[in-house]
Write a structure and sequence with these properties.
Shape: globular
Number of helices: 3
Order of helices and strands: EEEEHEEHH
Strand content: 25-35%
Distance between the termini: 37 Å
């Protein structure tokens, strides 16, 4: 299990895990990404579920330039993929707020639903994001 304060280094960039990011899934952590150029920022880090193998690490790293260039409101930019213990860690630009999954979970516990107008906006936003990802060469 990964612990708070653990630091992982790859290609002169390092990632320090700070704790669970409130309002997101239990596998999303807060972290500090220190880049090779000396800059650092808060990031949201999604852990696993993939185990670190040469193939999963190569595939993860290959997705970074592809997804980093997509500018779409429904997507959070992916900054780096690196091994963190036995699993892959994906560091995304930090977003404050609540994830859609957490919002739906809260609505279910209250026996409520997303209003249809908002549901349609969410579906349209996701469709635009997917189109942006698949349009990248």
């Amino acid at each position: 299990m990964l612990s708070c304060g653990a630091e992982y280094v790859v290609a002169k960039a390092s990632l320090k895990l700070m704790g669970t990011q409130r309002g997101w899934a239990s596998d999303v952590r807060e972290g500090i990404l220190k880049r090779p150029d000396g800059t650092q920022s808060l990031v949201s880090v999604r852990m696993g579920p993939e185990r670190v193998t040469p193939e999963t690490l190569a595939a993860g790293r290959a997705s970074v330039p592809l997804l980093a260039g997509v500018r779409e409101g429904a997507l959070v930019p992916l900054e780096v993929v690196l091994p963190a213990g036995e699993v892959l860690a994906r560091a995304y630009s930090r977003v404050d707020g609540v994830s859609a999954a957490r919002m739906l979970e809260l609505l279910r516990t209250r026996a409520q639903v997303v209003p249809s107008r908002i549901a349609v906006e969410i579906v349209a936003s996701v469709a635009e994001a997917l189109a942006a990802v698949y349009a990248v060469d």
